[in-house]
Amino acid sequence: MDYIKGNKQAWEEAFEHRHEGWCGDMLRRLQSEELPYMNEMLKTALRSLKLKNKAIAQFCCNNGRELLSAMQLGAKAGYGFDIAENMIAQANEVAKQAKLNCTFTARNILEIGDEYNETFDLVLFTIGAITWFEDLEALFSAAARCLKPGGVLLLNDFHPFVCMLPLPDEDAFDPNATNRVVYSYFRKDPWLEQNSGGYMTHHQNSHTFTSFSHTMGSIVNAAVAAGLQIQALQEFDTDIGMTDVYNGKGFPLSFTLTAKKAG
């Protein structure tokens, strides 16, 4: 569990050094745009769940922007959890300003308390969330425990295949050979980086980010092991946050998984 403590320090450091004004317009966007901070596949999946008057949660919610956006779909209450205390502080401040019934808590997801047992109609994981956990069975078991009978786990993320592709800022990337894979799909060693928050900062962290690759099989099997029933798995050849250089080349780049707790 030491890696989770290290990731907490790394994310808090990265957020402290975020770009000036990053998400400074969150309140305006929440009040003027339809489901901001979401890609189209996530919007489609959330709309299909009919969330009016439901209790919804996001695990690894970052600064709350996606959960706050989802409240537009009529949920009666939202709950966000993340390890980074400064991100959670911003989320709670914006929720208060927007007068949305959302509560954000700084907590290690694997240690979420029994007070949340069978509380949520939806548990949401979005882009880049599950990569911060080595044991997906433990992660999805925590989610399943917090779901009401009949509740849904929704995961929208990068496809595991993406971990095989070099990104444009990596030495292994060749712009003339973008059909080439470089890394093993079955990588076991963790990824160690100083800046995994490149979307919000260029700061080189003193604390190290530790993340893990997971195959599609390990994701599905972990959900099943947690007692969840797979409802749908959709794969797309569109990137949702890394780079667009591989779009439309026939590679699986993103996916949406829906799983249900027996009710």
Which properties best describe this structure?
263 residues; single chain; alpha/beta; two-stranded antiparallel sheet; globular; Rossmann fold; seven-stranded mixed β-sheet
Please give a structural write-up:
With 263 residues, the protein is of the alpha/beta class. The chain has one domain (2-261): Vaccinia Virus protein VP39 (Rossmann fold, 3-Layer(aba) Sandwich), CATH 3.40.50. The chain has seven helices and nine strands; from the N terminus they run αααβαβαββαβββαββ. The chain has helices spanning 2-16, 26-32, 40-48, 65-70, 85-98, 136-146, 216-225; strands at residues 55-59, 77-82, 102-106, 120-125, 147-158, 191-193, 209-211, 228-236, 254-261. The strands form two sheets. It has a seven-stranded mixed sheet, with helices on both faces. A two-stranded antiparallel ribbon has the order 6-7. It is globular and about 50 Å long. The mean pLDDT is 96.
Helix-strand layout with pairing:
Blueprint: H1 2-16, H2 26-32, H3 40-48, E1 55-59, H4 65-70, E2 77-82, H5 85-98, E3 102-106, E4 120-125, H6 136-146, E5 147-158, E6 191-193, E7 209-211, H7 216-225, E8 228-236, E9 254-261
Parallel strand pairs: 1-2, 1-4, 2-3, 4-5
Antiparallel strand pairs: 5-9, 6-7, 8-9
Helix pairs in contact: 2-5, 6-7
Short structural summary:
This protein is α/β, with parallel strands linked by helices and 263 residues long.
| Helical content (DSSP H or I, runs of 4+) | 25-40%
Contiguous uncertain segments of 5+ residues: none
Helical stretch count?
7
> Which CATH architecture would you pick?
3-Layer(aba) Sandwich
Going by CATH, what is the homologous superfamily? Vaccinia Virus protein VP39
Please provide the ordered H/E string of secondary-structure elements: HHHEHEHEEHEEEHEE
Largest sheet: 7 strands, mixed
Report the average pLDDT across residues: 96
CATH fold-level label: Rossmann fold
Task: Round the Cα radius of gyration to an integer and report it.
Answer: 18 Å
Shape: globular
Beta-strand content estimate: 15-25%
What is the CA–CA distance across the termini?
Answer: 32 Å
The total of beta strands comes to 9
Tally of structural domains: 1
Oligomer: single chain
Class from helix and strand fractions: alpha/beta
